[in-house]
Structures are given as C-alpha cells and as structure tokens.
Amino acid sequence: REVFSFDGVLGPGASQDRVFDEVAAGPVCDAIERFESTIFIAYGSTGGGKTFAVTGGAKRFEDRGLIPRSVSAVFEALAARTDRADFKVSVSFFELYKDAAL
Description:
The protein has 102 residues and is mainly alpha-helical. Helix content is 39%, strand content 4%.
C-alpha cells in the first residue's frame, strides 16, 4: 500500500486565483529567477476538477487555470524587468492517464 503526503488540499470552493497563488505563484517566480521550475498538480479521481484546475474554463476570464495564469505571470515578470535582456521561454506540459503519457 502506498502512502502519499500533501502540502495542502484546496476545497471545492477554492477560486482559480487561490489555486494559482497557493500552487504556482512561487514556482513561476522561481522559473524567472532560477530559469527552471516544476509544478506537479492534479492527482485524483475522474471528475475531481483536475483539468479545470490546470487549463481552466473557457467562458469566464477569472476561470483561467494554472497554465494560462502561469504563462501570463512569466511574461508580465519578464516585461517588468529593467535589464531588458533577451529571453527564450520554453514550457512543457504533459498528462499522465492510467500510467501512460498522453
């Protein structure tokens, strides 16, 4: 039997903004300062809201998920830099489903 530990659990009423702040804001800042970062999220049963948390909803701007919020935060942070260096941004995303990468 496997035992998993969690840093935290967000309830079903958590806003996408709160999910981003709790899960991705720190790693996004790390990516800007250290040039690499990883976020692991969305482990759970079918219908648990994983896809919605990661990609978001298409109807309301405030429903943007982790991916669009993270990309926006990266480019906002780069635009705010005063050193005006050139940057190459690369993002990878993959989904595991039944132990297979999709």
